[in-house]
User: Fold this.
Amino acid sequence: MENTSSLSPNSPSPPPPPSSPTLYTNLKTIASPSKIKHAIVDLAINIKKVGVDDPRRIAHSFKVALAITLVSMVYYLQPFYNGIGDAGMWAILTVVVVFEYTVGATLSKGMNRGFATLLAGALGVGAEAFGSLFGPTVKPVVIGFLVFFLVAAATFSRFIPRIKKKYDYGVLIFILTFSLVSVSGYRVDTIIKLAHQRLSTIIFGGLTCIVISMFVFPVWAGEDLHKLIVTNLEKLASFLEGFGDEYYRVSNGDKSFLGAYKSVLNSKATEESLANLAWWEIGHGKFRFCHPWKQYLKIGVYTRQCAYHIEALSGYLDEQYQVPSEFQIAVQEPCMKMSSEVGKALKELGNSMKRMVYPSPSYVHIENCKKAIDDLNIKLKMSMVVERDDILESIPVIAATSILVDIIKCVEKISEAIEELSKQAHFKKLKDITSDENGKPHFRHRGAAIKPVDGGNDRELSTITVNSDDEIPQEMDLDKNKREINRL
Amino acid sequence: MENTSSLSPNSPSPPPPPSSPTLYTNLKTIASPSKIKHAIVDLAINIKKVGVDDPRRIAHSFKVALAITLVSMVYYLQPFYNGIGDAGMWAILTVVVVFEYTVGATLSKGMNRGFATLLAGALGVGAEAFGSLFGPTVKPVVIGFLVFFLVAAATFSRFIPRIKKKYDYGVLIFILTFSLVSVSGYRVDTIIKLAHQRLSTIIFGGLTCIVISMFVFPVWAGEDLHKLIVTNLEKLASFLEGFGDEYYRVSNGDKSFLGAYKSVLNSKATEESLANLAWWEIGHGKFRFCHPWKQYLKIGVYTRQCAYHIEALSGYLDEQYQVPSEFQIAVQEPCMKMSSEVGKALKELGNSMKRMVYPSPSYVHIENCKKAIDDLNIKLKMSMVVERDDILESIPVIAATSILVDIIKCVEKISEAIEELSKQAHFKKLKDITSDENGKPHFRHRGAAIKPVDGGNDRELSTITVNSDDEIPQEMDLDKNKREINRL
Assistant:
């Protein structure tokens, strides 16, 4: 996109001729060659971006073209060539509307179309036959009423969430086929011949789509969902890992990672539609047929919840103060520790999901977070007996740390959800993990057996069972400390 | 939904016979009469809910049925009745795929279909004629290549955001029609005759849809967007108005309002699609043709931002402590004032949008919020010189108040966006507002001329010009106070 700056309307252009400058200017604003050039270049850059962002789009375009060319040529070149006729038309129509970007969507549309056509065709033939019982004068009225009420009922059913989610397109095709067949005015034997021909072309068109979408550079909705969840976790992790440096004005480098999390806030619709399409897909790559896609949605919910807190936290970054306050510096160490460790925990979780193994290394970081919270509590106690005038300076700092603690709680929930997914999807277990009798992995960390966080209350940081010889302040009253964490 | 409890699978059923209980149980789980009854009743309740939630859905179903019956009967009953034929089929097909829930969607699809058919038909005829130049042997190859590359290009264009947003369906129909026409194998004169017939049936079907959707119980996307934004504001307002009572355990009544804001978090997709559809709609009700729908999206962004903060704030409600801490009680008055006044401000803003008048009364509440912030600052200063051990108790309280201040800032942004909308959409001005030279309304409030909040920095509560004789602490150093508000 850097090239655009040199192509902006402010770039040097030939000076206007001395005569009739107004006319010249007007013409220039309408269609000066440089403006047209800019527009074309802009369009080209835009188009290039669409392709570069996801090269599978280019492949998809050629796949659709291939399917349509294939289907139309089969009918075009058939030996009894006599124009393409009705049958070929239905095959082309099927390919155009059924071929979607992902395998799941193509399968869903193809199967919906096939079954709906079959069912509606049968019902339509029945309606026709039923109408014929009443003689030619009353028949149109009877068929009219039948079509009216069945179409109304079918249209209404499209509002029922369960049907809307998976069978919306099928109901649409049902309405179409039923209306067409029942008002076609043909006799039943003609209809059956027509229906046979039409159904076979639809199946041919649909199968062409499904085969091409599944075997030529396939785009699997399930795989995309898996990647999306991993990417979202990584985006949040980048923010949190960089937050400390940013909050204490330590770094001055690239800040693009600070905005990346914003796309997570609105990922719900995409996740749900992908999970819905993944339901139709057969096993592919590392994913089995009945991969627990629903559990991905649960991870998505917690990830978004974490993103909401990050949104609140990011508000404390663009304060006008370039120099951290005294109080802010007093809690610098635990604050930076908390954000970097929770970031690392998320990164590890994302990484284990990416590799489809049990999420173990993140426990270390979550435990480190908890140690940092303990440390923060001590620092707060020591720092807050301050002068009356400086108290208000500490308020945004306290708020930010409190939000950080909420984020740690969210990450624990994400960790639990990913652990649940690992179980349901039979992820591989790493060698260096020993399982206890409950099947829960214990991670051996510098001699400390740290219990993974257990279900428990939503707003509560669970009890930490620590038995280690490193820097944890053993002299602290653990029970009281826990109460304080809970408060925080 | 209350009835469902009495219909749950746990309700009493006849005791199993003593012999072969396993078989009986198996049969029972497959299809016992009571289970089937439950399933049917459940389904009925579900269906009823869909209709009760939005009765316009029932109207829509009958509208679609009416359109299809009308179109099919016109072809069915035509004097030269000879089966419905190709032409009628296209009319029915058009109605089925074009008739959408909102007027905007129907207009968008109808116009996309009409223009795309026209353009693709012309290009298809051209391709056919071009192919014929090469003689019958080479023609299929030439046409095949033309179809392949044009379909690939058109499919790729569907990924370009601007096209995807408004013309996605048009491109789909373009691909369909172009492929159909260019491989139809008819001579050009036959094609033109066919095209004329097909286009006229499409226009007839499309017009039927548009007329029925616009004049029979119309559902306008624009109106829905307006209502959605108002409802979202009201949901946030309810939460904030009730937050104080809830936080201080004052109330024990209905708590459903506490969860209502959650739907706002994920309203982005709905808002954008409605705004997109509203773009196609003509003027309706109080909305002119070029109503500034884009500004609604801006209000939506700020509303969601506010909802994210509320999500963070709501975390401080389900703490385990039933009794507010000493520190919490010390700041009770300004805290409850802040939340109730910011709630009232939002309610007034929503109300003025609903009535489509300039948002004026909310200024009072926003000013009250600012007074409460001042008050809070004083209370905090007085309360925070406390015992060392109680300091940690104050942390969640400070965090909650800090988030409340952020919410007030968000509401100011919402207020500005609504004011901008009022200007762009020429909302009515209330009589008791006097405008200054900038056209900004001043609200006269007990002798104080309070300036409405001006653009300014995002994270900054703007300067408050106060000249009043009521309870504002005049003795305070206003400059310092402002700095503290900014910090907060």
